[in-house]
Amino acid sequence: MTISNNQRRKMKSAARLYAVQALFQMEASGQTVDQVMREFEDHRFGATYDDVEMIEGDLATFRSLMDGAVNEQAAIDQMTDRALVAKWPIARIDPTWRALFRAAGAELKKGDTPPKVVISEFVAVSEAFSHDGKEPKFVNAVLDHMAREAQPEKF
Fold it and tell me: Mean pLDDT lowest for which of 2-16, 26-40, 83-97, 98-112?
């Protein structure tokens, strides 16, 4: 079966959301990356919750984000710290945002996707977790700083 470009784009967007959720779950539960990835790939991609079917995630994107976020976590966290004001080191921010910055940082460091696309995609993901509507602006500002550091030649 051939997948349209629009469907492929939606699957990549879903993979970004799943990566943020998986990284959050790893931190909250202490599970290994392999355990969490297996759970997501086997049970979360395309699952149905409250009669709503989740979209199938792009497996290659999901795996790349997870591997990059785990293998480059120290460097990504340092990059995130530099993007945050001194009063808000990464250890003090909500684990959801840590997971998001790690997934986005992995994609920014890999450099295959234009930074503006990465920022836009992860700002959209942040809207799913936003409580008061202010978080996406915060995420946008931090990711913009991280993108300029990771790929300065693109700005």
Answer: 83-97
Q: Which of 96, 105, 152, 28 is nearest to 36 (CA)?
A: 28
Kindly report the pTM of this predicted structure.
0.90
Cα separation, 99 vs 19, in Å, equals 8
Q: Which amino acid is at 120?
A: S
Pairing of strands 52-53, 48-49: antiparallel
Count of alpha carbons within 13 angstroms of residue 80, beta-carbon side:
25
Treating both helix axes as pointing N-terminal to C-terminal, what angle do 59-71 and 5-29 enclose, rounded to 10 degrees? Answer: 40
pLDDT of amino acid 134: 86
CA angle centred on 44, ends 73 and 28, rounded to 5°: 40
Amino acid identity for residue 139 in this structure: V
pLDDT tens for residues 78-96? Answer: 999 999 876 677 778 899 9
Of 134, 106, 104, the residue nearest 116 (C-alpha)? 104
According to DSSP H, which parts of 1-155 are helical? 5-29, 33-39, 59-71, 73-83, 95-110, 115-129, 135-150
Can you say how many angstroms the Cα of residue 38 is from the centroid of all Cα atoms in its chain?
Answer: 17
